[in-house]
Amino acid sequence: MSTKNKILDSAELLFAEHGFNGTSLREITRNADVNLASVNYHFGSKKELIKAVMSRYLNELSPRLVTAFNTLNDANDQPSLHNVFSTFIEPLLFLNSIKANGTSNFLLLLGRGYTDSQGFLRWFLTTQYPEVFSSFTKAVQKAYPELTSEEMFWRLHFTMGTIIFTMSSSDALIDIAKNDFDTETDIAGVIKRVIPYVAAGVGAPIQNNN
After folding, report:
1. Per-residue buried b or exposed e for 167-177, using 16+ beta carbons within 10 Å of the residue's own CB
2. Burial class of 123 by CB neighbour count within 10 A (0 to 12, 13 to 18, 19+)
3. Angle between helices 130-143 and 149-168 in degrees, nearest 10
4. Where in the chain is the domain with CATH 1.10.357.10?
5. What is residue 205's predicted lDDT score, i.e. its pLDDT?
6. What is the CATH number of domain 53-202?
7. Would you call 23 exposed, middle or buried from its count of C-beta atoms within 10 A (0-12, 13-18, 19+)?
8. Fold type of domain 1-44
9. pTM of the entire structure?
10. 190 secondary structure, DSSP code
């Protein structure tokens, strides 16, 4: 394995486990068994390393999501919000073919970008992969045209919180389902269970909050 990939694998593991703020470059290099100079040589900074870790997944995920949402948006029929959120399933599960536990790792890393207040990462995602966001929001608007941009912001923010919590505790949830209900499930099953919940939340009746 190349030094660059050793650093990326080490960073991904530690970022997912301890967060971006809770992981130092020295911890990454020690875990990867490389020197600090190699991180600077290949990435230049911790911010660039974070971007590189995310890009390994996003470069595979982004075109698949854009294609799926464009197909939904180009259809004549109005989709349901359940249809919109279900569009994420196949592209997200594809990440498991890239790397073991790729789906849950990516979603956990994505959540870290929000909970660790990594504003630059959100900027990076929206500027480097704008078609994902535009095609997704277009699909939400097509499914629920009465939803204002402000209301969509809040509801998608709450949705992200639900997804982050669910993915960060997915192993525990899978164990509880087995122990308490004798139900075998996996990360795909967890995602399929959370989709009706978040779709119902985004699709809740609009209330006057004034």
Report:
1. bbebeebbeeb
2. exposed
3. 110
4. 53-202
5. 93
6. 1.10.357.10
7. buried
8. Arc Repressor Mutant, subunit A (1.10.10)
9. 0.86
10. H
